[in-house]
Design goal:
239 residues, alpha/beta, TIM Barrel, 8 strands, 15% strand
């Protein structure tokens, strides 16, 4: 599969409550970003689909619909069909085999990304869910299922990315959220993300894309923060 441009490797998470706030952030970032993630918060706001159309058509940006679809297979299939017609580039589904199979059957040009283990989860969270496997083993198992069912990639923390890249090579796209500044790696977490890496480490570990939300959204100068990340990406992928 063809790889992304350097600029596309940064996916900015529009984790804001309204399309108006999302549009303001996109306009503020300008050409510092061209790929945006829209999650449940924004998708449940009035005007969300009109905003997606504006983002894809007027701004010519790519859209990552991070909806983590998990329902009966026919419902997932129909939802994927709607998202495909709506102009999304990526959509997430849970890593359950029947869900992944249904999504892959309807994807067309839309790329299906399977969620392995949320970056807000650690071994203690898995134990509470009754999972017998450790985090890495579960991530690998779900990635194998994603490949077998026709998905295009997986959502994975940067910590598991090296093993995934070693195992699957370029057969699966690796999209890594939970990106935090290098200085914060050894500090006490300030939010709900538990398995985090910085930008440079994410790509060194094998990520194809990174998803960055709060470090850009909450920066004093979001555009400068995005540009700084783009410079790090350019260093990791020299022309």
């Amino acid at each position: 599969m063809s790889g992304p441009t350097r600029e596309e490797r940064l996916i900015v998470a529009l984790d804001v409550p309204t399309p108006a706030e999302a549009r303001a952030l996109v306009e503020r970032l300008g050409d510092a970003a061209c790929f945006y993630k829209i999650g449940l918060e924004l998708f449940t706001a009035r005007g969300a689909f009109e905003f997606v159309e504006w983002l894809a058509a007027a701004r010519r940006c790519k859209v990552f619909a991070d909806l983590k679809l998990y329902d009966i297979p026919e419902t997932v299939r129909r939802a994927v069909a709607n998202l495909r017609r709506g102009g999304a580039t990526f959509v997430t589904v849970h890593g359950h085999r029947s869900v992944m199979e249904a999504a892959a059957r309807e994807k067309g040009d839309l790329k299906i990304l399977a969620v392995t283990v949320l970056t807000s989860f650690d071994a203690r969270d898995l134990a509470e869910l009754g999972a017998a496997a450790n985090v890495e083993a579960l991530v690998l198992a779900r990635a194998q299922g994603a490949l077998e069912t026709g998905c295009d990639g997986v959502i994975t923390s940067g910590l598991e990315a090296p093993r995934l890249k070693q195992t699957f090579g370029d057969r699966l796209l690796l999209v890594t959220p939970g990106i935090r500044p290098a200085a914060a790696e050894n500090a006490k977490p300030a939010d709900d993300q538990k398995r985090t890496v910085d930008v440079a480490r994410a790509f060194a570990n094998g990520a194809d894309y990174i998803v960055v939300g709060r470090p850009i959204r909450d920066a004093a100068d979001p555009r400068a923060a995005a540009q700084d990340i783009q410079r790090t990406i350019a260093s990791a992928f020299p022309a």
